[in-house]
């Protein structure tokens, strides 16, 4: 197969930074809780992630390595709808900054060993079609879009911005299953526009991608929770000038984390994740992320 340089890492920032071969909407436990009408949520994410590869058909073919450090700010406001406020919706906006550094092997492939700057602007709406606060059960559908506002260098395949529009349709369901145990499940479909300035004048396209994220969570107390999770990604093969350059990642990622409520309106989450299987692209060999959320009336 003919190989052309591709964007091996994209610090395309959304809710928390969506790393290479991950769902566009990086889901955390409790993301599906509908807060009271009028609540303003402000969330800050920071992440440190290591990548290795490339991989092709499940085999590592390059000794590339990269480190990405990222910070994201997200804001949303909840509006109640319907009789007895049984529905709700929330507009969401997110913007982040990233700094990415590679070793010489990956830098040669990507025609650049460093990229930093602001990421693409992400906006969207979440609609809760099921709210049962008494039983801690919630269901929602989200529609989001990313716009090419981030830093983008046409001479390199390593960039913070993507120079394309992307649309994401997602859903989420949260409910208790037994005692102090709860589950969160989130499917996602992402559709990608064209990058018509890839490495100068080339056109980069990407197939529709699909993701399924789930968490199993244990409520140790009202202030402390623990969780584990998994994410399956399929689709998303990349083409340059109509020629496939990277097959679908088809990767599986595992999560382990904890959640601490320092007040009824403030929450901290510390999470570790790692790819345990991948077919193509760059593998996440470990990410540590810290999330702080505060709800304002």
Tell me the structural class.
mainly beta
CATH superfamily: Autotransporter beta-domain
As for the number of domains, it is 1
The major beta sheet can be summarized as: 12 strands, antiparallel, barrel
In total, the number of strands is 20
β-strand percent reads: over 45%
Task: Explain the overall architecture.
This protein is 2% helix and 65% strand. The protein is mainly β and 297 residues long. The chain has a single domain (12-296), classed as Autotransporter beta-domain (Lipocalin, Beta Barrel), CATH 2.40.128. The chain is globular, with a radius of gyration of 19 Å. The model is unreliable at 1-20 (pLDDT under 50).
Summarize this entry quickly.
This protein is mainly beta. The protein has one helix and 20 strands.
Secondary structure elements and pairings:
Blueprint: E1 12-14, E2 16-18, E3 40-56, E4 59-77, E5 79-81, E6 87-102, H1 104-110, E7 114-118, E8 121-132, E9 137-147, E10 166-178, E11 181-192, E12 195-198, E13 202-206, E14 209-219, E15 224-235, E16 238-240, E17 243-246, E18 252-263, E19 266-277, E20 281-296
Antiparallel strand pairs: 1-2, 3-4, 3-20, 4-6, 5-6, 6-7, 6-8, 8-9, 9-10, 10-11, 11-14, 12-13, 13-16, 14-15, 15-18, 16-17, 18-19, 19-20
